[in-house]
Each structure stands twice: as structure tokens, then as C-alpha cells.
Amino acid sequence: MNGLRLALPLSLTLATLTAGAGEEWLMPAKARHPAPAPAAAVGGEDWAPELGRQLAILRVQPDNVEARKAAWVAAMRLGLFTQAAALDAPLSEADRRAMEGDIIALDIRYGIVDRNTLRGPERFVRLDIALTATDALAAEFFAGKLPDAEDRRRLTDRLSALAARRRAADAVTLYESLLARAIPVPLWAERDVAGSYLELRRPQEALILYQRVVADHADDFDGNLGLFYALVETEQLDAATGHIDRYAARLPERRHLDGRYNGERLSADIAADRVRIFADRLDEAQTRIDSRHAAIPHNSEARQSSASLALARGWPRQGDEMLRRTIGTDPLNPALHADLAENLLTLQDWPAARAALDHASELDADNGTVRRARRSHELYDRHELHVEAGYGEGQDVNFFGSRDWAIDSFLYSRPLNDTWRVFAHNYSASADFNGDNQSWIRTGAGAEWRHLGWRVTGEVNGGSGVRTGVTGTVRWQPDDHWTLYGAGESVSNQIPLRAVADGIHASRVSLGVDWRQHESRKLGLGVYASDFSDGNLRSGVNALWFERWLSGPQWMFETTLGADASRNSLDAPVNYFNPKSDRSLWLTAAVEHLTWRSYDHSFRQRLALTGGTYWQEFYGSGAIEAIEYGHRWEIDRDLSLRYGIGRLLRPYDGEREGRTFANLVLLWRF
Predict the structure, then answer these.
(1) What is the spatial distance between Cα 629 and Cα 640, in angstroms, rounded to a whole number?
(2) Burial group, residue 93, by CB count within 10 angstroms (0-12, 13-18, 19+)
(3) In whole angstroms, how far apart are CA 329 and each of 249, 302, 333, 503?
(4) Which stretches does DSSP call E strand in 361-495?
(5) Mean pLDDT (the chain, rounded)
(6) Of 153, 230, 165, which is closest to residue 191 (Cα–Cα)?
(7) Most exposed among 68, 166, 355, 622, judged by the fewest C-beta atoms under 10 Å?
(8) What is the DSSP string of 325-389?
(9) In angstroms, rounded to a whole number, what is the distance separating the alpha carbons of residues 623 and 656?
């Protein structure tokens, strides 16, 4: 109560004095740098009453030079730099430059507020004014000028303005030039430059700066969040998780002044939730995010986390719903519209995707999430080349030949009217049977239609001395969990080359259904029938259960349990492998290691072991054993490459045979 009694008259005195000075003297936020010290004869520590006294004198004696100078000093001390300039006080050159520098600093401070609160070009007006005011100084500095103390101060302020204006390359260039000339840079400016390093995808340099900031100011919110993102982007995801968990735990849940939830604590908690998504700990992320969303269902950050989780788990329709609800509460957030634009690409809703991207760009074309969404749309609008190739070596008596290879390649055009593409298709295969080489080559052209949950293709093909064939495929995803697909081929490429050597060809139809709970669990069932030209009808069924048991920043462990069976109707002996009936049960266990990743570039290694049993009518059962080791490269968002080698042992007609194999998959958008 004593403090309240003291504060009340002081507040009333300040309000009375400043009100008497006129509305133009309302106090703005303090600038980053203090005003220069006043002359010894002027002053006092209480600058608001001093300003009031000097302005009262000037109203009576407008030509009083000493009062004008004293009022200027008091205004500068209070951070009223624009108003101080309007006093037209008799200033020394040093005082004049200091005032100009403070006005630049204030423009930067207000400019950052504008950037964070306004939309459209006007949000950068103040920052551009401040940068224009220091353009000449920067040019002189880069030309070799030795800056004095005021110049160094303005160059440091320029660093902050460049970073806020998203001129990251310019900010880093100026910062590194200052260091090269042994000009010290204050820690607060290094924190701003650290963000520019992150924007330029140079997270290691950002990490060093943020560590320095946090070491000196352990409670700096922006510094701690910056350090978190620098750890994420240097792929130190365990360290990032530990850091943000510890920092969030240090922050009070409630603000001590009004008892409301602490916004900084909420932002730190939500960052801690999302790092579980980055680290592929999606079950843990699900528990945390669901709990937080239930507690604060209308908070836009919590909703955005739920949307991000849905997309990571492979639920684009649920993600679409969450993004739209979040946009309803935060309609001017460009990142939300950009996320929606990317998700609508996944949902194959092309017009809506382009409209969402256009709206995001109107809000903030330079936003990082908007730039990434724009890149995704650019990739969709490119040509696509998809190639699958395989090679094998076995014994001379092998049904597949002593050496065999196959290449299946599709070249797609750019989208036509969003939903259509035309494509060229080539399938080439060859095998060596006791020195006799047999080939199968088919080339075709077709069209593909994609829209919403549908993908339909039609193709006409020919080659290898067999009649012209047609192929059609259809896939439908009615929701986030189910996928139904089917295909029909009048001349199938899925035929043993030993049959081709005997002048046999086949037609084929297939149907299948997949149910996927999320990214870590899938069940599938398929059936097919092949009608060979020699009168044989081969029918089969297959089923699988995929489960990812362990997932983290670097390691994944998953299994696939599969079962299949087939039957052939032809009783006459043939040269190709043609069991009367057979079935198999097998389990593949695979471990994958993320060896290296930097943004869109990554390298993974995978080792898979398979064991099972195979049963064939009239020949009994035998073991299936296989090992495969592979690499997967994400060279960039437009180019990925996967390849592997392996060894398979299994029985054919009761004889155990071995086959060494290699495979390759390429996807290139150009």
C-alpha cells in the first residue's frame, strides 16, 4: 500500500506535465540506444518533470536558447527523438548526429512492430526509411571508410533492420565485414544476425551466435527459441528437445501481473510438442498435442500443431479440416494459407491449392513457409521421369535365367489443365537361358487424370512381335485410411521370359485394397488373375501387415508380415515356372538409419532380413531367406535416388536356388 501511495502522485505529476506539453509529446517506446548525455549545467534525473518545466518556459519565452536546449536534452533522454528534432535547438554537430541516429533507431524499432502487425507493402515502410537513411554510410564503409563511434552505432542498427527486412544475405555480409575489420558487434545485434544465418540455411553459424546469446542472457526468449531452431536445423534433434523442454519448464505458466496464461510459456510448450514431429516421435507428439488441443481448443498455435501432426501421420483430409479451422481464427497468417496450399496438392484439389497459395503470397510472399509452398507448386508443374530397374544373377537352371534385367520407365508431361498429364512408357527386359538371350520390349503412350481422391490412367502399347495392347489403372482414396486400386492389361509385362521364349503372352487383371491407420501401420489385400495364351489361367492372392515399431531422429525399425498363394490351371508341362498351387508366409525386418540430412538433402541406409517358408504342391515346403542392403538419397526436392543389393534363397520345384539381385528407383522432376 505504501508503494501504491507513492506511485499515484508520481503518475499524476507525470501525466499533468506531459499533457501540458501537448498531444505530440505522448511517449513512444524507448529506442534501443540512450540519448547523449546533457551538458553539466542542465538536467536532473527526473526527465519528465524537467521536460514539462522547459516547455512551460518556452511557451512564455520562445526565444530562450537555454530552455530550448534543456528541453531537447530531456526529450532525448525520454526517447522522444522526433519531437526533440522539432524543437530546433542549437546543437553541436555531435549532438545533431546523435539525434539523427536515434531517430533511425526508433524507425527500426517501430518498423519491426509494423512488420509483425501489418499486412501488405506498408509493413516495411519504416524499415525501408531507416535503411535508406544508412545506405550511403554502408556504401562508404564497404568502400573502406573508417567509421567513428556514431557510424558504428548506425551500422549496428542497420544489421537489425536488414535482418527484420528479410535481407538476410545483406545482413550477414555487413556483419562479417564488421568482424573482418575488428569492429565489435553487440550481442543483441548478433541475435538478429543469427536469424539471418538460419534464413540462409547456415544453421551452424546461427547456432554459435545463439549459444553466445543464451550464455549471456539465459532468459532471453528470442535467443532460446532461436537456439532451439538452430539445433533442429543442424539435426541435433535430441539436444533441441532437451533444450526446449528445460526452457519451457523454467517459464511460469501464469503471468504474475494478471494471472493469465503466459504466452511465452505456451509458445515454448508448443515448440516442444512440434519437435517430436520433427524427430519422428509421432506417438509421443500425438499424446502431447491432443492433450494441449483439448485444454485450449480455440488457440491457433495449438490448432496449427494438430494440423501439422495430421499431415505428418498421413491424414491430409483431417489436416485440411484443422488448417481451415485454424485459418478461421487467424485469417491473416500467411504460413497457415501456405500449409493449406501444400496440403491441397496432396489432396489433388488443384484450383483450391493455387488459390490458397495466391492468398498466402498476397499476405507475405517472403515468408519461409510461403516460399516452400511455392516451390512445391513449381515441382508439381514440371515434367516427371520415373524409372525402376532391376538386375539378377542365378544358376543356369534358374527359371529366371542366369542373368536377367528389367527397366520400367515413365516420362510424364507437365500438367494440362491441372488434372491431366500425358506420358510415354517403356518396359524392357532381358534374360539369358543357357547362352540364349530372350528380350521383351513394350513401348506405349497414354494419359493420366488426377483429381481429388482419384487417379486414372489409360495406355496403348506395342512391341516384341505381340499385338497392340491396352492398359488401364484406377486408384481411389475415399478418406485418410482406405485406398482401393485396380488394373487391367490386355498384354501384360508381368510374364516370365521363359514363356516369352516359347511365344507365349498373357493378359492380367488385379484388384486390391489397403487400410492405413497412420504412417506406422498398414494392412493390404490383393488378388490377381493372368490369362496365358497357352491356355493357363494363373490366379493369386496376397496379404501384408506393415508395422513400424521404433521411430526416432536417426533410427527406424519396421516389419512386414506377408502371405501369398497362387494356382495355375494348366496341367501340361511348360518351360516356365508353373506350380499347380503354392503358398508362402514370410517376415521382413528392416532397420533404417538417417546417416546425414541437411534441409531437403539426405542420405539413409537400410538393411532388411527376410525369413519364411514356401510350400509347393507335389514338392513340399522349404525355407525362404533373403538379405538386402540399400541406400536412399534425397539429392534435392526435385531428384531422389534409391538403390540396393541383396541375395535370395528359396526353392523352385523342390530345388533350393540362390539369386543375387540389385535394384534402382529414380524420380526426377525437371
Answers:
(1) 17
(2) exposed
(3) 28, 12, 10, 67
(4) 384-394, 403-412, 420-433, 436-451, 454-463, 466-476, 482-489
(5) 90
(6) 230
(7) 355
(8) HHHHH-TT-HHHHHHHHHHHHHTT-HHHHHHHHHHHHHHHTT-HHHHHHHHHHHHHTS-EEEEEE
(9) 9
What's the farthest any 2 CA atoms get from each other in the chain?
122
Residue 76 contacts residue 36 (beta carbons within 8 Å) = yes
Whole-angstrom Cα distance, residue 480 to residue 347? 10
Confidence grade of residue 37 (pLDDT, cut at 50, 70, 90): very low
Cβ atoms < 10 Å from Cβ of 328: 12
Percent of the chain at pLDDT > 90 equals 77
**Which residue carries 556504401 as its cell?**
139
Dist. CA 79–CA 92, nearest whole Å: 19
Q: Residues near 207 by Cβ (< 8 Å), separated by ≥ 6?
A: 227, 230, 231, 234
Q: Cβ contacts of residue 135 below 8 Å, gap of 6+?
A: none
CB-based burial label for 573 (10 Å; 0-12, 13-18, 19+): exposed
In this structure, which amino acid lies at residue 365?
A
Please tell me what DSSP assigns to residue 89: -
Non-local (6+) Cβ contacts of 40 within 8 A are: none
Total Cβ atoms within 10 A of residue 461: 21
CB neighbour list of residue 266: distance below 8 Å, 6 or more residues apart: 296, 299, 301
Say if strands 436-451 and 454-463 run parallel, antiparallel, or are unpaired.
antiparallel
Residue 72, C-alpha cell as written in the block: 531537447
Mean pLDDT over 31-40 rounds to: 35
Q: Are 129 and 119 in contact (CB under 8 A)?
A: no
- Beta bridge mates, 461: 444, 469
Least confident piece of the model among 74-83, 412-421, 560-569 = 74-83
More confident residue, 151 or 22: 151
Q: What is the rounded CA–CA span in Å between residue 394 and residue 656? A: 11
How large is the average pLDDT for residues 392-413? 88
430 three-class SS: strand
Identify the residue with better confidence: 39 or 633. 633
Half-sphere exposure of 280 (CA within 13 A, CB side): 16
Which three three-digit cell numbers place residue 145?
A: 571508410
Residue pair 605/622 in contact (Cβ under 8 Å)? The answer is no
- Per-residue buried b or exposed e for 237-248, using 16+ beta carbons within 10 Å of the residue's own CB: beebbebbeebb
Question: What pLDDT digit, counting tens, does each position of 515-542 carry?
Answer: 999 999 999 999 999 999 999 999 999 9
Whether residue 516 contacts residue 522, with contact meaning beta carbons closer than 8 Å, is answered with yes
Contacts of 250 (CB under 8 A, 6+ apart): 219
CA distances from 611 to 399, 588, 607 (A): 21, 7, 14
Q: Which residues pair with 484 in a beta bridge?
A: 476, 513
Who's near 4: CB < 8 A, 6+ residues apart?
Answer: none
Closest C-alpha among 171, 158, 85 to residue 127: 158
Does this model's pTM top 0.70?
yes
Among left, alpha and beta (phi > 0; psi -120 to 50; other), residue 454 is beta
Nearest to 345 by CA among 383, 378, 304: 378
DSSP letter, residue 488: E
**Residue 85 carries which side chain, given as an amino acid letter?**
A
Grid cell locating 355: 488459390
Handedness of CA 596, 286, 607, 663 (dihedral sign): negative
- Alpha-carbon gap, residue 345 to 15, rounded angstroms: 57
So what's the pLDDT on residue 23? 32
